[in-house]
Amino acid sequence: MPAAVSANPRTSGVSTVLRAADYDLDATLDSGQAFRWRRAGEAWEGIVGGHWFRLRQVGTRLEAETATPLPASDTLTQYLGLNDDLTAIIARFPPDPPLRSAVATCRGLRLLRQDPWECLASFVLSSTKQIVQIRQIVETLCDRYGEPVCVPGPGAIGRSFPSAARLARCTELELRDCRMGFRARYLRAVAMRVAAGDPCLTALPGMPLEEARAALVSLPGVGRKIADCVLLFSLGFRRAFPVDVWVMRALQDLYFGGRTIAQRRLLEFTDSHFGPEAGYAQQYLFHHIRMEAGRVPRSVRR
DNA sequence: AGCCAGGCAGAGA
DNA sequence: TCTCTGCATGGC
């Protein structure tokens, strides 16, 4: 990926320009995969690999500003899924009307490749929480237990997502104080397991899907749905298909004529119907229905 | 004011 | 194997 690098006197960091054809940064960063990105005018600000970034998309140009000299140049490219061949991926979707409609609306949406620990911990916090609330909890957790990160501006400071080892040293009460309720016990237990290397998250991508999923589900507070989020959003398992309440309803409405379907049958369906890029299909469906819901007042929805 | 949120675990049938 | 319930908290 060719990148023009230039000094940026305002931030004493640097700016990079990446090519981002067939890419939708807004959809990608606002589709419930990651919880720390926040809008800053036309741009998005967040932290990847311990480095602060400000991202702005202008057409097929993706401008990335950092506060310090750039980390390895492909860090961001990997994270943002810029190298995914979206045309080939979408060509592998089953040609059904719901997916066509989702692609027509959200084309350019990508799967992120997040840090596995941050992804796992964030989704442990996600159960029966709205996305806005997950964001709040994660921010509090970072403010209190993350490591300082350079950001532009005098006296400003950012925080990394706290490591498993750091959170393993927290008491359940300290975690509860971050407003995460009953999830505190799970987060603490998961942090202790991961800090002890059981499972070793970086070893999971080399395993078969079922095996990696089983390793994640063995963690307290991690079931099929959260495991699939981690498999899909951080470990590169593109067949993983997280089914949350939204996707459940959408699948029943769009593929089963509104009838309620047993969880078992639904998983058999998603496994067989959506093919090798099932995870991408899932994310298109999820983002699509969430955008539609956003435009309709709650009172009009079912 | 009440319903529900990118669920999971344990109990009981 | 399936269904039901408790769990903390806050947006809408």
- Label the overall shape: globular
> Based on helices, strands and strand pairing, what is the structural class?
alpha+beta
Percentage of residues in DSSP E strands = 5-15%
CATH uppermost class of the largest domain: Mainly Alpha
CATH topology of the largest domain: Endonuclease III, domain 1
Order of helices and strands: EEHEEEEHHHHHEEHHHHHHHH
Kindly report the spatial arrangement of strands forming the biggest sheet: 1-2-6-5-4-3
* Tally of separate domains: 3
How is this fold's topology laid out?
Elements lengths: L3 E5 L4 E7 L5 H5 L8 E3 L2 E6 L2 E8 L2 E6 L7 H7 L5 H6 L5 H10 L9 H9 L6 H15 L2 E3 L6 E3 L4 H5 L3 H9 L2 H13 L13 H9 L6 H10 L11 H11 L7 H11 L4 H18 L7
The protein binds a DNA duplex (13 and 12 nucleotides) through α6, α8, α9, α11 and α12.
What can you tell me about this protein's structure?
With 302 residues, this protein is an alpha+beta fold. It folds into three domains: 3-83, TATA-Binding Protein (2-Layer Sandwich), CATH 3.30.310; 85-111 and 238-302; 116-233, Orthogonal Bundle (Endonuclease III, domain 1). 46% of the residues lie in helices and 14% in strands. The chain contains 14 helices and eight strands. Strands 1-2-6-5-4-3 form a six-stranded antiparallel beta sheet. It has a two-stranded antiparallel sheet with strand order 7-8. Helix 4 (97-106) packs across helix 14, helix 5 (116-124) packs antiparallel against helix 11 (224-233) and helix 10 (209-217) crosses helix 11. It binds a DNA duplex (13 and 12 nucleotides) through residues 32-33, 123, 126-134, 136-137, 176, 179-184, 186, 220-226, 229, 242-247, 262-264, 286, 290, 298.
